[in-house]
Design goal:
By secondary structure, the chain is an alpha+beta fold. It has a domain of 148 residues: Roll (Ubiquitin-like (UB roll)). Helices cover 22% and strands 13% of the residues. The protein contains five helices and seven strands. It has a five-stranded mixed sheet, with helices on one face. Strands 4-6 form a two-stranded antiparallel ribbon. Strand 1 and strand 2 form a beta hairpin. The longest helix is centred in the N-terminal third of the chain and has 23 residues. The radius of gyration is 18 Å and the shape is globular.
Length: 231
Amino acid sequence: MPIQTLHSFIVLTLFQVGSIAKGASGWSPVLSFQRRSFSNKDQACRHFATSSPPQVEDTPPPSNDPLESNSNIRSDSATHQITWKTACAGDIVFEAADGETVRTAALRRGLISPHNGRANLVNCRGLGSCGTCAIEIEGPIDPVERNVKEQLRLNFPPHGPSSSSTSSPLRLACQVQVRGDIQVTKRTGFWGQYKEVAAASIPTQPFDELEFLLDSKSPPTAIAPRKGDAK
């Protein structure tokens, strides 16, 4: 079976299972989706201002032992800083492993999501086919230009065809790997297609570790479960 066909089958199966679970007795613990709805930007910003930052690193103090590594990123792996611009006061800043996709880095750290609102549930899980993780990026990334999946998806509405030009800043967070300190901006709309800067979107992982199953770009140490993650 071709790999793309297998990927599509997995995604469709996940959505079907989720629908059955929800229709029967709500979301099961494995497929839980705790969505908070905000009627406006001010409510979303107040939520992030009053919420305690999640403990996402589980990282011990630095060690002089070159053979020692923590549970998330190898001690010899480079890390880069991601600054996420939002409509709220202040930026969201976190670190990503070198080569980690922006989508995986954001969801892994539990601080921000590249998907707006209901798109946290209804997205392609990193296939590059839905376009809901469209963002603007400044800084070192790989690939520098859009890959084939990005060209195809961002050439369709609601992003294209105008956004398909080389001057468009839009990229897909699931297709872009971090190669240095970068700045990310997410726009409003289900697909991030409007001009206004979006308020911080609460990250969710309705399929737990399966959220990262289709990520073949991030280094394995970035995708592997962190210490304390649900098994």
